[in-house]
Design goal:
By secondary structure, the chain is an alpha/beta fold. It contains eleven helices and ten strands. The structure holds D-glutamic acid.
C-alpha cells in the first residue's frame, strides 16, 4: 500500500549537524510531521574551500537519495552555503519536489536595527556567492552590513561532537574563533556606528550562540533563520494540501543519517534535540 501523500516525511539536509538548529524549529512549528535528517558530515565543511560545483553535486545527490529512499514530500535545505550554491539548480532538476532554502537574515536585521549597523557571520562559500551579494545589495540602502567569512568555525562545531577530541579543547577552539571573527566585525553596542544586531548566516553558528552572546553583550540582537524557515515550510505544505493530519495525536517521528561519524551525530542529536541514539544511522555510500 502506498503512503497517503501528506503522511510522507519532510527531508532536511545540511553539510553536517548545523541543520539540527533548523530541525529544532521545524519540530516546534510542525510537531505532527515526520522528518528525515541528512548530515553530510563526511564531506563537511562545505563553506570553507569545497567550491560551488561540489556543493551542487552533493545537494542533488542527497535530494535524490532522500526522495528514492524516503519518498519525502518536501526538502528543507538547512544550509546557507548549499542554498546559495544549489537551490536554483535543485528546483530546476527536481521541479516536483518543493525545496525550501535558508538565507542569512539580512532583511529582518535591516528592519529591526536601530543603529543601522549590522554584523553578519557566514561561511566563505555563502559570502562569496552571487545569491548573497544580491541579498546584500537589496538591503543595504539604509543599513551598513559588516560581513565576515568564518573559515574553520563550522568545522570546529562539527568537531565538538566528534571523537576523540577532548571536549574542553574543542570548546576553547570555538570560543577563540568566535572572538576572532566577532572582533573582526567591529564594535557592538547601541551608540552611533555600533552594531546592535548580529546575523548568524550559517546554521552551525546557532550552536555557538552562547559564546557569541558573551562576546557581543546581552543587548545585541542575535538573529538566525530557523523559525522563519519553519513557518515558510508550513505555508508551502499548507498551500499544496500536504500538511500532516493534526487529528492524529501522536507526535511525528525523526530519523537521522550521517555520512560522518555515527557517534558524532548521536551526541549532537542527544545534546540539542534530546533524541535517542537509535534514531541515528551511518551511511557509507550515499
Ligand atoms: N551549515 C552550513 C551553512 O549554513 C554550512 C557549514 C559548512 O559546511 O561550511 O552555511
Amino acid at each position: 500500500m502506498t503512503e497517503p501523500s501528506a503522511a510522507r516525511p519532510i527531508g532536511v539536509f545540511d553539510s553536517g549537524i548545523g541543520g539540527l538548529s533548523v530541525l529544532q524549529a521545524l519540530r516546534h512549528e510542525l510537531p505532527h510531521e515526520d522528518f528525515v535528517y541528512f548530515a553530510d558530515s563526511g564531506n563537511a565543511p562545505y563553506g570553507d574551500a569545497k567550491g560551488e560545483v561540489f556543493v551542487q553535486q552533493r545537494t542533488l545527490a542527497i535530494a535524490r537519495w532522500l526522495r528514492s529512499r524516503h519518498d519525502i514530500k518536501a526538502l528543507v535545505v538547512a544550509c546557507n552555503t548549499a542554498t546559495a550554491a544549489a537551490v536554483e539548480q535543485l528546483r530546476a532538476d527536481l521541479p516536483d519536489l518543493p525545496a525550501i532554502g535558508v538565507e542569512p537574515a539580512l532583511k529582518p536585521a535591516a528592519a529591526c536595527s536601530q543603529t543601522h549597523h549590522v554584523g553578519v557571520l557566514a561561511t566563505r562559500g555563502t559570502v562569496d556567492s552571487m545569491r548573497f551579494q544580491r541579498l546584500l545589495q537589496a538591503h543595504s540602502a539604509h543599513t551598513h552590513f559588516a560581513v565576515q567569512a568564518c573559515d574553520g568555525l563550522a568545522r570546529a562545531i562539527e568537531q565538538s561532537t566528534e571523537e576523540p577530541l577532548p571536549a574542553t579543547e574543542s570548546a576553547e577552539r570555538i570560543r577563540a574563533l568566535c572572538a576572532h571573527y566577532a572582533g573582526a566585525l567591529g564594535r557592538f553596542g547601541h551608540k552611533t556606528n555600533e552594531m546592535d544586531t548580529l546575523v548568524l548566516g550559517c546554521t552551525h553558528y546557532v550552536f555557538a550562540k552562547d559564546e557569541l552572546r558573551a562576546l557581543v553583550g546581552p543587548d545585541v540582537q542575535i538573529l538566525d533563520t530557523g523559525a522563519a524557515v519553519a513557518r515558510q515550510t508550513r505555508r508551502i505544505l499548507a498551500q499544496d494540501g500536504e500538511l500532516a493530519d493534526v487529528q492524529v495525536e501522536v507526535p511525528g517521528g525523526i530519523r537521522l543519517y550521517t555520512t560522518g561519524q555515527l557517534v558524532a551525530l548521536q551526541s549532537a542529536a542527544e545534546r540539542w534535540l534530546q533524541l535517542p541514539a537509535e534514531s541515528c544511522e551511518a551511511l557509507n555510500n550515499a
